[in-house]
Amino acid sequence: MAEARVTIDVGNDGVAVITISNPSVNALAVPRLKEKFGEALRRNDVRAIVLTGDSGKFSGGFDINVFQKIHETGDLSLMPDVSVDLVVNTIEDGKKPIVAAVQGLALGGGLELTMGCHARIAAPKTQLGLPELTLGVIPGFGGTQRLPRLVGLSKALEMMLLSKSIMSEEGKKLGLIDAIVPPEELLKVSRQWALEIVERRKPWMRSLHRTDKIGSLSEAREIIKQARKQAKQTARNMPQHQACLDVIEEGIVHGGYNGVLKEAKVFKELVLTETAKGLVHVFFAQRLTSKVPNVTDVGLKPRPIKKVAVIGGGLMGSGIATALILSNTYVVLKEINEEYLQKGIKMIEANIRGLVAKGKLTQQKAGTALSFLKGVLDYSEFKDVDMVIEAVIENISLKQKIFSDIEKACPPHCILATNTSTIDLNVIGEKTRSQDRIIGAHFFSPAHVMPLLEIVRSEKTSAQVILDLMTVGKAIKKVPVVVGNCIGFAVNRTFFPYSQSAHLLVNLGIDLYRVDRVITNFGLPIGPFQLQDLAGYGVAVAVGPIYDKAFGNRVYHSPLLQLIMKNGRNGKSNGKGYYIYEKGSKPKPDPSLLPIIEESRRLTNIMPGGKPVSLTDEEILGMVLFPVVNEACRVIDEGVVIRAADLDIASVLGMSFPSYRGGIVFWADMVGPKRIYESLKEWSGLYGKFYEPSRFLEERALKGIPLSAPPSVSSSSRARL
Ligand SMILES: C[C@H](O)CC(=O)SCCNC(=O)CCNC(=O)[C@H](O)C(C)(C)COP(=O)(O)OP(=O)(O)OC[C@H]1O[C@@H](n2cnc3c(N)ncnc32)[C@H](O)[C@@H]1OP(=O)(O)O
């Protein structure tokens, strides 16, 4: 981030324009703001003040880097007193009118500063929001008090608890914005407005003193009560939602100023929580994924990708095609016969209809998206495509044949991507001479919904091709994470022990549904057994031998899956798996599964003394997740990911690992490598090689080094990236 500046410019009209200038989002530089406001309030030639931001943006809020410094040092004094000293005393209660001239975005502390001002003038389509809860804190510059007073309690709760921003047009209707003017008139109108306040021709409004939008105390309490109930369900394990409601309630009951004081106190408590640490880590880690050494830092420019061919109209292919057409990219969907092609097109139409039904897409945009789709049965349309994404079944010879066909059918610049989740890219491209443009584009199902795009490169994939796919990924609203070429790549490789540990626990006598419950209580949306039901068993069966070959004796074999398949269960697809699935109701545990589980326990015979083991929920959690951490260590050690933080993002976006725990490696460092190592060592003694700690974990645990610390040069084989 470039150096933060705040400038002051006093015009002949007696208006001082204070401008925040801190590329790229004008994060707030508090000491300089205080200094410039002090100057403007002191100077006799200044009658009124306009506060604005440079380069078409007001401000993205308080500098989040400061939170990270607080997390590293524990030093709360790094957090300046803005709320009372600057926003209440200097701005809101200052002796000169202050108008905020807002455009682009005003988020978090940025919006809070504007709410302390006496009026807000905005350019069209300015984004306004208080997203602090996504960082594990609450608005800390008075936002919890002023937003309800400006837009009403219900709307303010929606904006804060769901971190939902609004546009200035809606802000105008709600009363948050006083006028909307074209960007070129923003400063002129704001200056005039400020002078009119001086001349008492416009009201001198202090938001914190208002009560007209709050409603009666009993109404407000009822709204807060409902919000508490909802937050209990939707924001489990996180303290900031209930804390935000406490602070709002304080202000409603005891007045805005008391609310501001409580807000500042609670903010300081929250900023030190593990939740804030995890979420702030995820914020920066996600942005770091777009920095790929030797790809994004060597002056390359992304090439335009206008037309993409998707081969295979199954679940994955149709999801990928959906994601592409939603971003107005021309897609040619290829299938082997008319029947399959129509099936694929119908799936894409259903995906689009689903988004319309959920209110995520207008009917008009749905029609536009579908106009970008064309179904084909041969390669004639491939002559001018910029990229092909192959999404057929995991069959090596089929993929090899397709790649040698598309090498001939496509222009020489065309990117040749595969959506394989397991097969080595070098094997797929073996029959071509185009290894430099072969790349993995690993989407997660459903591809038009899940945000992660794992971009897999081989040693031969060119930097230009990686950059192009990263750009396409961002254009279709995915978060691309570049990883190396290995079995399962980063996500499936790291999580391969996840369901195996769950099976092992069941064979040790632990209740299957309890395992799922422990995992959902931890924060994943569903447990490993429900996940298997949802994904279908075909994937597990197909990848089993591949994992066996690659990972040898650290694979745990359980007969349970085969047994339940023999029993006619296919998971959610036929309504019967580990759970019973009935339309309109939640998945139900199935008591008739017990004899099958018992058969699996009999066959594996691993219960000590033939008796079920007794474990605490914490032990169950560790026995499921520590083997995942162990594999994550190997993934880091082998250089499959550029940095540990990439695996955090991949786990959050690909496996729905709770973001407030910071991702798998961040969480492991919070738990402590030593504890994880010692537990795994103990379990490997009791239950075998599946739990044996990796060399990397052992080294880090014994030397007291966090798993996320950059690997040492002497580390084993960092050859993949
Ligand atoms: C006390 C107060 O209540 C507390 C607060 O104000 S906390 C801050 C509240 N504000 C937020 O949560 C907004 C966070 N930022 C965002 O959501 C998005 O960055 C944005 C919508 C502003 C812009 O998005 P986009 O254009 O996609 O750019 P994005 O890549 O995210 O950010 C650009 C750069 O600005 C940085 N940045 C964005 N907001 C920042 C902030 N508030 N502080 C510090 N850096 C910030 C990003 O880290 C990134 O840096 P990089 O280029 O070195 O990677």
Automatic annotation (TrEMBL):
Residues 488-581 form the 3-hydroxyacyl-CoA dehydrogenase C-terminal domain. It catalyses: a 4-saturated-(3S)-3-hydroxyacyl-CoA = a (3E)-enoyl-CoA + H2O; a (3S)-3-hydroxyacyl-CoA = a (2E)-enoyl-CoA + H2O; a (3Z)-enoyl-CoA = a 4-saturated (2E)-enoyl-CoA; a (3E)-enoyl-CoA = a 4-saturated (2E)-enoyl-CoA. Its main location: other. Pathway: Lipid metabolism; fatty acid beta-oxidation. The keyword Heme does not apply. Keywords: Fatty acid metabolism, Isomerase, Lipid metabolism, Lyase, Multifunctional enzyme, NAD, Oxidoreductase, Peroxisome. Gene3D superfamilies: 1.10.1040.50, 2-enoyl-CoA Hydratase, Chain A, domain 1 (3.90.226.10), NAD(P)-binding Rossmann-like Domain (3.40.50.720). GO terms for molecular function: (3S)-3-hydroxyacyl-CoA dehydrogenase (NAD+) activity; 3-hydroxybutyryl-CoA epimerase activity; delta(3)-delta(2)-enoyl-CoA isomerase activity; enoyl-CoA hydratase activity; NAD+ binding. Residues 307-485 form the 3-hydroxyacyl-CoA dehydrogenase NAD binding domain. The keyword Ubl conjugation does not apply. GO terms for cellular component: peroxisome. It is found in: Peroxisome. One of its GO terms (biological process) is fatty acid beta-oxidation. Monomer. In the central section; belongs to the 3-hydroxyacyl-CoA dehydrogenase family. This is 3-hydroxyacyl-CoA dehydrogenase, C-terminal. It comes from Dillenia turbinata.
